[in-house]
Amino acid sequence: MENIEKKEQLYEGKAKKVYATNDPNLVIVDYKDDATAFNGVKKGTITGKGVINNKMTNFMFSLLEKEGVPTHLVKEISDRETIVKKVSIVPLEVIVRNVAAGSFSKRMGVEEGKQLLCPILEFSYKCDELNDPFINDDYALALGIATKEEIDTIKTLTLKVNAFMKDFFKKLNIDLIDFKIEFGKTPDGQIILADEISPDTCRFWDSTTHEKLDKDRFRRDLGGVEEAYHEIMKRIGLGE
Ligand code: ADP
Ligand code: UDP
Question: Does ligand 2 lie within 6 Å of residue 180's CB atom?
Answer without folding.
Answer: yes
